[in-house]
Amino acid sequence: MVDIESDGPIPFKYSMISFGAVLVDEKLDKTFFGKLKPISDAFILDALKVSGFSREETFSFEEPKIVMQNFANWITENSNGKPIFISDNNGFDWMFICFYFHYFLGNNPFGHSSQNLGSIYKGLEKTMFKNFKYLRNTKHTHHPIDDAKGNAEALLKLKNEFSLKIDLS
Description:
By secondary structure, this protein is of the alpha+beta class. It is built from 6 helices and 5 strands, in the order E-E-E-H-H-H-E-H-E-H-H. The chain has a single domain (2-162), classed as Ribonuclease H-like superfamily/Ribonuclease H (Nucleotidyltransferase, domain 5). The protein has helices at residues 45-51, 55-58, 64-78, 90-105, 117-125, 144-162, and strands spanning 2-6, 16-22, 31-35, 86-87, 115-116. Strand 4, helix 4 and strand 5 (115-116) form a beta-alpha-beta unit.
């Protein structure tokens, strides 16, 4: 489960400021957190404020290539088989993670696909008008680890309540 924060709506023109990942298992204790130095001069102050960091703080963050390599290593160390990218808003989170992996490392360990937690829930409920967010235990704080963990908790509830088949090995 992955969540990102950025300083604008699209990668390359704007920057991914931080992201977090939580391995979905019963413990939810394996996490990755990265803070990335901006890759462009452009930013939208209101978007940046969501991350809780100032523009000045972001310039002290790690080089994106190092963070993405560390994340790729973490994925390899914590995955059995092909890893699956899942997020609350995969249209947004995926485009940043995918772009950063390809731009800085030349490949994406997740491949070319992502999954949207909200869509999984809507499919299980058989309606486009229900929202899974009430299933989170961890408060949604816009810290990527908190948000990814809350979403992972929701996914585990879907596994248990709907018999959703997920391999947690």
